[in-house]
Amino acid sequence: MNDIKDKLRTHIEKMISLSDDEFSWIYEHFTFQEFKKNELIFEEGQPVKHVYFVLSGLVVLSYTDRDAKQHLISFAMEDWWETDFVAFYSKSRSTFALKCIENTKMLCLTLDHFEKLCATIQKMEHFFLKKSIAGHIGSQQRILSFLTSSAKQRYEHMITNHPALVQRIPKSMLASYLGVSRETLSRIL
Amino acid sequence: MNDIKDKLRTHIEKMISLSDDEFSWIYEHFTFQEFKKNELIFEEGQPVKHVYFVLSGLVVLSYTDRDAKQHLISFAMEDWWETDFVAFYSKSRSTFALKCIENTKMLCLTLDHFEKLCATIQKMEHFFLKKSIAGHIGSQQRILSFLTSSAKQRYEHMITNHPALVQRIPKSMLASYLGVSRETLSRIL
DNA sequence: TTGAAAAAGTGATATTTGTCACACCGTCTT
DNA sequence: AAGACGGTGTGACAAATATCACTTTTTCAA
Fold this sequence. Notes:
Two copies of one chain form a homodimer. Chain A is of the alpha+beta class and 189 residues long.
């Protein structure tokens, strides 16, 4: 249990510093959950009650279009925060699914607790602002890669920038994340 | 001048509420700047000292690749915040250029002032967190459009969701923003 | 008013990528 | 050991999009 607390604390303290009391109080607002490989955390049409902090394992956020084709929006591994942010913040139903690629341990934070943390400890609002900005910048970089790069270049970019992630996912998933067909990715290699 | 103050205040108060004193103090941290059509606000390689709040007009954030080809990352019109966020937050040099498509009036906020506002008035940190989340969600939607949609569908999506913007920019720019060639967009219409 | 520059349309062709069909391989279960 | 299944590779062909060259239209300033 203490390694879980440490993991969250170390993560938050990369950006802000907290007293023992502050951290203990913060930690009380999270719940722990464990999921097995291939298990669905939530799926399309369901309410999204939490934002998830990944302690270990790997999850993927996906969208299924009218033709039942799956599109992978993002992966989240250790130290990442993930959820369907639209559904989470507006307390509405998800347009995405969140699924485990590996056995995964997560800390879960409800919107009410998220807002309570932000309102009570300003440093936490600051922390989440920084996280959100980083997320925004990451998304902008991905958009730029769609605008400027061929499928091959996007693949090579993944290999150099996220080699650990590439090792852990089947190539068919990587293809979907990169926005190319499985077959095209196979020929690119 | 008062219409400028009102514009900013109305914008911020859509999300949080402020006393007259609070707003006046906040407003003092901004500087006003006016640019002409086609003027560069900053370009690749320059430091980015401000985040810009667009009062009126239209600007575009762009990236130029090794082949000197321009790619349009985002547009910002009235009530939008824009800058090269990487360069702004890290006080480093820009990889993007910010250019005026129309005569544009903006309010400018330095990083130091941004941080001072956030640190002093928690509501402002809350405001910027909400803005950042909205930006992140917008980027994720755009990524999803690259994953799921053809050029034609992306174009139609723009027409229905940002008709005002489409009217104000040349089709060649719209093409670049959508990630297709000018000629392909022309044939799609 | 007119001429230059910018923006937009179009035909011909090349390139990239998707789709479908099928083969191959390893793992897991029974 | 046999069969089922997921993941992957590949050939043939179709569809989408890029590129190049050129024309037409629009805009705007001298």
